[in-house]
What does this fold into?
Amino acid sequence: MATIIFKPTEKCNSNCIYCDVVTRKKPKTMSLDLLELIFKNIDDFLKAKPAENVQVIWHGGEPLLLGEEYFLKAYEFQEKYCPETKIRIKHAIQSNLTAMNENFIGLFRKLGINQVGTSYEPLANMRGPGKDRDSAFYNKQFMKGINILKRNNMGWGFIYVVTKKSLERPLDIFFFLSNLKLSGGFMLNPVLLYGEDKYNIGITPEEYADFLGAIFPYWWAHRDRFQAVNPFRMFTENIIDKKVSVGCEDNGTCAYGHIYIGPSGEASQCGRAGDWEIISYGNINDRSLLDIMQDKQREQFLNRDKLLQEGECKDCPYWKFCHGGCPLDSFIKTKDFLHKTNRCNGKKIFLEKYFLPITGARIEN
It folds into this structure.
């Protein structure tokens, strides 16, 4: 499946401490003319690739700030330009939910969206509007958004971003997040920074491993209750259940189908690559989606798995659920996409210090 990380706006009503997109850029919003062109391109791409599907992941900024009319236009453009291929278009959305209202529910359902991805932060003054990040206001609006989703039987899942401020209270944070969502699950992700760590929130891979390690024994003992907490569930499925289950940063296949399209039509490999202007595939105004997907620069990502398996990752027992990590993390460290990442050591520490001794599992090559 081709995945479009679709960022029609960089505008946001929050000022999250670990996001520099809003503060680093003058936020832009995609015009309706360009939105229309996107759907023409999707239809052309799907007609040229009859075995493909396309997933459009609405991202931001905060996409709900586009307003209800914008999503209605997206639906109308899809109906107009993709009458035969629309069955192969899947939509998803990431939102902070603070601008959520009942009217969005019907529009989401028109686009086939029945699940909303979000993120949450229980620590004060990490997320929220204003210079001091009014977390009380943010949390109030977030909970209103969650209640709207629940009333309308819409699913939701969330990410928690682990920062230096999280390290002192791993179990407290885990218990809070678990009570926030009693069914389903959430993801514990390390904070991702590119450039200056101006708020001193960055963590090392080793610190992330120990944060997970402080939680994992409790999760393992009560895993029937806390089923879908990741990366714990992911490692359990891969190592114990013998299932292949990894995120985009570890699956080694993002080169085959991921693309980012920003508010001016700029194209890149993924959301992070686009936000940080690390690699450019030109602009959808000048190139078709098919041309962008076949850009020569993508070959380095296609060749990365082979190079790592023959070199830095040769005989690594964790290869099948790591693949050297995200190419973007490699670039941040080495200015090259073709190395393994500095997060590999964090995975190794977590598995060897916590996961394997506690579960009694063994890694099979």
